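Render Transporter in 3D.
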Amino acid sequence: MSTAASIAAVLVVSVATLVVGAYGLRVSRTTSDFYVASRGVGPILNASAVSGEYLSAASFLGVAGLILVRGADMLWLPVGWTAGYLLLLVFVAAPLRRSGAYTLPDFAQLRCESRAARTVSSVLVVAIGMLYLVPQFQGAGITLRTLTGAPRWVGQLVVAVVVSLNVLAGGMRSITFVQAFHYWLKLVALLTPVFFLLVMWGAQGAPDVGTLDLAEWAEPLTGEHALYLTYSLVVATFLGTMGLPHVVVRFYTNRDGRAARRTTLVVLVLLGGFYILPVLYGVLGRVFAHDLVAAGRADSVVLELPSRVFHGPVADLLTALVAAGAFAAFLSTASGLVVSVAGVLSQDLFRWRTEHGQGIRAFRIATGVGVSVALLFTFVSADVPVAHAVELTFAVAASTFCPMLVLGICWRGLTAVGTICGLIVGGSLSMTAVLATMFGIDREGWLGAVLTQPAAVTVPTAFATMVVASVLTRHRRPEHLAQTMVRLHAPEHLGLDRGTFHPEQSTAARRGS
């Protein structure tokens, strides 16, 4: 493949990202612009931005790599990641927008009227954001190494710098335009090469696939503890979406609850169309690049397929296009993660106020801190397949914020004590499994299966903990619960008492302080 063409593609995407982000800077002036784009994003633009942010390194590279290695069992990944938005639509999209929050900790304080619940939520937002940033940086390193032979840290550093510049410039207002642009770029970057690859496959007939056991690859539920691992993966992907801070924060940018629901419907269409493509790349990788399995380079199958099938300028152009799409995936997802982490760091953990000017400065400082820590964590973590690293992050989100949101929106009985206990129990159990996997701690038998896919154990445990602890502390229900439930469930145009909570109030004035 032509290294020059691939490098040029990466540079073009990086520069285009900065240019589009600079447009957002022209209209980013207030704290609300930086956190939630002043809640003025329409459904089509927001759905494109949500999809661009959601389709990460795991979607662009990791799904194809896991399907190449493990076959039919991994089809649950694109299914689950898409279906997660259906559950988000049904349970939380509109109430989240009506809450008026900027972040998940804002929602925790609104619903529970507790500073302690807010603090625990803040810690978990940062933890999940860091865990999700690591595979984005890892994917960038894999991409640049595959294309140019450069050390992994070069690609990781490039993504960190570009993302930092974009977020520092205009916050959520800026990256909304960037992420919408990235979705359509990623779609074209996968769709164009796969068309040529399928045509070539049809022209060549069935090639030799070596000694690979295709029967085992095509047959689901064949490995040890396969049934548990599959159900646990389903639980994590279906429920994890609604607990991802960088996904949830995008629904705060809609104009109202109705627009949030419309956004989610469009997202389902955009994701459903996109996720067909990584599956095709995984199958085509089995046909044309099965040696990547033994070489331990399955995550690079999307990048290497064009040069395996074609030669000359065609191979160079198709590889450059895929490289551009891959970098767009890293940049868009990492941007959303950095916004969600920086928002929580500046509002809560660093205890800065959010008045105009000071809030923006705090947000920018938190951006630099968040990116630096995530980059350091990437350098010291073990080489976990990109898609599996994201699976584990989904397990943490499903074990913490999913129970808080579902119970907080649908059940009046949830208390601050129940929320805190559930977040701590679910977060501790799932994070233990994630860190053990990321740092290469292997276990055999059922313990190993649970550490690999913890959601089937940790999610029910978190739900049960929240319910039991809330029932035991029913006398400590929030004082303004009735107003809060009206705020979450009543359409915005109804003139009802919704309480006085606003996320731009000072920390000391917030309810429960």
